[in-house]
């Protein structure tokens, strides 16, 4: 049976409404089987940058330690902000792993290039072993084993690092096997699926901090993930970035989130 780990971390987000991520994680947790779900006691305080260019670094490292303590095989990690994936990958064997990064933003900033200092915008760069040494993966995931899905809000500083990664755009997912083909081409024998829900089209999903048009539908993304799982075993998954503005809004979006959860368990 799948295990769910709830990490309502908000400290990696650049949004002024970052605390809504805590509400989003709680809303998802309420629809998961209680016996299979662990909710982490994430610090509420912002934390300190500890002399670095990464905002709230002290809280981020505390959450990283909590995630490492509770990680189990084939865990589905529920954020919070999307940088929780970095902590999960730091806690498992990644030697044969591909990472599928479903996100409207490629998250390829470094502390030096980030306009906000928020770690979520640096998360994939940290997966690649670059950026803040306190948070970056070691050993890193190599660029050849990363597939970026649905990225469409790309800053100038992210263009060069993104050019070295495999990409699957929202329009590519019209072919049911496009994502599975990209993962198979990495040569990896397991895959971690990272889903920041802002990869979804805002016409079908509203509960995100920064909506970007021309995303993928929940049904199409779920079908693509199922096609991946039919060919490459799943090491684990993340679903993050849910920031409903009201409880009623959360109810409207939970159907899409449960569909995504169903595709990874």
How are the SSEs ordered, and which strands pair?
Layout: E1 3-7, H1 20-29, E2 37-39, H2 57-70, E3 75-79, H3 84-90, E4 97-102, H4 123-127, E5 146-149, H5 156-163, E6 166-168, H6 178-184, E7 190-196, H7 218-229, E8 234-240, H8 247-264
Describe this structure in words.
It contains 8 helices and 8 strands, in the order E-H-E-H-E-H-E-H-E-H-E-H-E-H-E-H. It has a single domain (3-264), classed as Ureohydrolase domain (Arginase, Chain A, 3-Layer(aba) Sandwich), CATH 3.40.800. 31% of the residues lie in helices and 15% in strands. Strands 2-1-3-8-7-4-5-6 form an 8-stranded parallel beta sheet, sandwiched between helices. The longest helix is centred in the C-terminal third of the chain and has 18 residues, at 247-264. The mean pLDDT is 97. Helix 2 (57-70) crosses helix 3 (84-90). By secondary structure, it is of the alpha/beta class. The protein is globular, with a radius of gyration of 16 Å. It has helices at residues 20-29, 57-70, 84-90, 123-127, 156-163, 178-184, 218-229, 247-264; strands at 3-7, 37-39, 75-79, 97-102, 146-149, 166-168, 190-196, 234-240.
Quick tags:
8 helices, 265 residues, single chain, 15% strand, eight-stranded parallel β-sheet, globular, Arginase, Chain A
């Amino acid at each position: 049976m799948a295990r769910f780990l709830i990490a309502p971390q908000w400290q990696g987000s650049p949004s002024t409404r970052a605390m809504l991520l805590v509400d989003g994680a709680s809303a998802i947790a309420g629809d998961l089987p209680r016996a299979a779900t662990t909710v982490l006691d994430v610090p509420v305080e912002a934390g300190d940058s500890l002399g670095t260019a990464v905002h709230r670094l002290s809280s981020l490292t505390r959450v990283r330690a909590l995630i490492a303590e509770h990680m189990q095989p084939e865990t589905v990690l529920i954020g919070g902000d999307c940088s929780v994936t970095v902590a999960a990958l730091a806690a498992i064997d990644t030697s044969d792993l591909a990472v599928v990064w479903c996100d409207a933003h490629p998250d390829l900033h470094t502390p030096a290039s980030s306009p906000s200092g928020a770690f979520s915008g640096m998360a994939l760069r940290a997966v690649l072993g670059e950026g803040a040494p306190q948070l970056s993966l070691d050993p890193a995931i190599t660029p050849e084993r990363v597939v970026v899905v649905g990225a469409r809000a790309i800053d100038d500083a992210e263009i060069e690092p993104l050019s070295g990664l495999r990409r699957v755009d929202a329009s590519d997912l019209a072919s049911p096997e496009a994502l599975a083909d990209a993962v198979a081409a990495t040569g990896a024998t397991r895959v971690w699926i990272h889903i920041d829900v802002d990869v979804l089209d805002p016409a079908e999903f509203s509960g995100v901090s920064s909506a970007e048009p021309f995303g993928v539908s929940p049904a199409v993304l779920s079908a693509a993930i199922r096609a991946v799982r039919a060919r490459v075993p799943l090491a684990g998954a993340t679903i993050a970035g849910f920031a409903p503005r009201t409880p009623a809004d959360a109810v409207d979006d939970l159907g899409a989130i449960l569909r995504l959860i169903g595709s990874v368990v």
